Amino acid sequence: MFLSELKCNREKPCQNCVVRGEANAASCTYAEKVEKKNSAQNPRSDAEDMRKRLNRLENSILSMMETTESPHSNSPATTTTSGSSQMGESSTSQSGGQKMSSDTRSTHWDAILSELGAMKDAWSEENDKIEFSSGISPVQDSKAHRPSLLSGLAQPPDRATILESLPSREAVDRLVTRFFEAYNPSIPARFLLHKATFLKQLNRHWSSSHGTKIVWIGLLYGVLCFAMQSYNRYNDPPPEYEGTSPALAELYRVRTAQCLVIAGLTRPCEYMIETLMIHSMCEYSMEKDGDMGTWLLSGTTVRLALQQGYHRDPSQHPNISIFQAEMRRRVWSVVSQHELLFSVLIGLPKFILFAYCDTRTPSNIHEDELYEDMVVMPPSRPTEEKTQVCYQVVKLRIMKAYGHIVEFLHLLQPQPYEEVLRLDLMLMQAREAIPPHLKLGTLEEMKDDPPSLIMEKYILELFYHKATCVLHRKFWDGAPANTPKGTFYYSRKTCVASALSLLHHQALMHRGCQPGGPLVKMKWYHFAITNHDFLLAAMILCLDVMSMRKIVWGGVELPDCVITEEEKLSGIRQSREIWADIVDDCRDAKRAVAILDAVLAKLSAKKEAERPMNTLPPLQGSVPTSNQNLESLRCHQYFTNTFGFGMPNPTPLSGGDIVMQDDFLDAVGPDLTIPQDFNWDMWDQLMQPQSLTQQVPYDFQQAGLPAYG
User: Fold this and answer.
1) Which residues on adjacent β-strands are paired with residue 696?
2) Residue 536 phi, psi (nearest 5)
3) Could you point out which of 67, 291, 307, 561 has its C-alpha 20 to 30 Å from the C-alpha of 520?
4) What is the dihedral sign for C-alpha 169, 173, 176, 182?
């Protein structure tokens, strides 16, 4: 006998309830009909409907459990269920929000509820995938929080929009070639990438762009921006970029930043540091007057590099391949030098100390000896052998000595003068280790060298003399312990000599930049760091000239090792003429001309009004005549504590703020003298362009100058 299926006619009361004679037939309730919707058009509505159905089923089972279980039943199933329910009250919540019982039989109510919970969780995960693939944005509260200053206040464009800005494959290939060929030692971005490996990655991107990481796309945009900037810097854009290269460089720069934001600066990943460094160099290339922004970028980059372990030598990590280890050493050398240079530029301590790091110097090997699948690292070649990375290896030695100097100068506790001499010797040894093919010669001797090689030679010399000035400018009257007063002058003489050498190199580099010169496409004044160094050198000479005028020599001739006042003034005047010559091409030049004009005017006025002073006793001891070595210069009796910078007699200013290009020289004093504890770091900060173009408060006492009454 077959029973036909009873169907409800959904009336009140329904026919089935009437036949059964149930008393509550009039209270029949029905689930509301849900209109069928097109799931292809609205997958989210189907998801909500499924969640509701699962919730109703779950509630129905819970209701059945409450009505069928008897609190006095002694059946095994009931006992187990009760005990399990009591145990579950203190247990942690499981999937679907239900408590799990110790009984795992599939017929048990708890097991059924657990399966329902698992179904709900699985449906939620699947629905999230549907929403993502359908382009439906999740609820705002479920978004991961990202710091707005790092991710940008505006939502970056999607991946498709970013890829649409890429030029054709042929154009990209030409720009990548330009990136590696238009090498400028002042911005060594090429050192961050291995050309053969990058070209392989580029070919893989053209084969399947869907698998390319967004941060690598940012790296590619950085390379394109760098190449496009080189057209603008050298003023040689090809016909297809005539008039559009600045706009394209800006577009690629923005796309690089957007890729970094999408990748997430706070999430370490491969190529992040390389992309950030190239982006920082692009920013620096566009900041003709320098800016705090590049320093902040360098600080962010070095912190992320620390997070990824670049400061520790890769040999300690067996999972890093030989190729990756060598590239990490190269990247870290660029990151650490970049952070050092911009910290010095604005007069603040460097962030990463050498005591924190043990990453070795990159190997001096040829580029074809380095490849991804290598299993043995070839021995590093001597620096006398030319390689593409030799300059970076040699420069790193000087920069390490420079970095130790900067760390030393920012120590708060007084240090013995012997430490100054130790650092000076370290710097001299790094300079002496420069191989012959990187030693600076005359322009005539270097006329057949490539412009980039000539610039490498100049940069090594400039960094040596800049580090010497920075080290000794704070110790003009310093002397080793137990040294008789008036018998030591090494720091002052060395500082002044290096300052004059910097201005001499400025004149030679400027001559090389003239039409037909070897540096016509590598202008020295394109970069704020170099400009700051030359201005610092001129200021050191100005202060030394005025300080020396306080001495009347009583007819005693100056020792041969002393640089005469006329040599110093000649260097200052020549530097002023050079700045005036490029005033239309370099905004730093306008500031330099204004400062040097004011200094030279004060020096001329001071000399005319100069009056005899008390005569000092003649110098005792022999005078070195020529080719003085380190020991002879350290021990000669010329500069004494009496020769130190005198106390200033500043002119009161109206108000508490100054604009340096107008009032800075008055603040130093009418005779251009400064006290021995003058804060050179504060001077570096004040020489930043933003300090010269807006009203900024200045604490004279913090800089070592007396306060005004």
Assistant:
1) 658
2) -60, -45
3) 291
4) negative
- The answer to whether the CB of 391 falls within 8 A of the CB of 398 is no
Give pTM, 2 decimals.
0.69
Q: Mean pLDDT lowest for which of 10-24, 163-177, 559-573?
A: 10-24
CA–CA distance, 554 with 551 (Å, rounded to integer): 9
Identify whether the C-beta of residue 591 lies closer than 8 Å to the C-beta of residue 689.
yes
State the Cα–Cα distance between residues 573 and 567, nearest whole angstrom: 10
Q: 23 vs 311, which has greater pLDDT?
A: 311
Identify the residue whose tokens are 């005792």: 620
Mean pLDDT for all residues in the chain: 74
Q: What are 461-494's pLDDT values in tens digits? A: 999 999 999 999 888 777 777 777 656 778 888 9
Tokens matching residue 207: 């084969």
> Residue 89 corresponds to which tokens in the numbers above?
């009250």
3-state helix, strand, coil in the chain (%, to 5): 55, 0, 40
The answer to whether the beta carbons of residues 362 and 353 sit under 8 Å apart is: no
SS3 669: coil
When pLDDT is averaged across residues 483-510 and rounded to a whole number, the result is 87
CB atoms within 10 A of CB 542: 24
| Helix or strand run (H / E) with residue 657 | strand 657-658
H or E element at residue 696: strand 696-697
Task: For residue 201, give the H/E element and its range.
Answer: helix 195-207
**Separation between Cα atoms, residue 535 and residue 323, nearest integer Å:** 42
Name the token pair of 610: 């100069």
One DSSP character per residue, 552-611 reads --TTPPPPTTSPPHHHHHHHHHHHHHHHHHTTTT-HHHHHHHHHHHHHHHHHHHHHHT--
Q: Scan for tokens 């990655």, then name that residue.
A: 201
Q: How wide is the angle at C-alpha 398 spanned by C-alphas 395 and 402, nearest 5°?
A: 130
Token pair belonging to 686: 């004040």
Amino acid at 73: S
C-alpha to C-alpha distance for 654 and 333, rounded to whole angstroms: 48
Compute the distance between CA of residue 635 and CA of residue 49 in angstroms, rounded to an integer.
92
469 token code pair = 């000035």
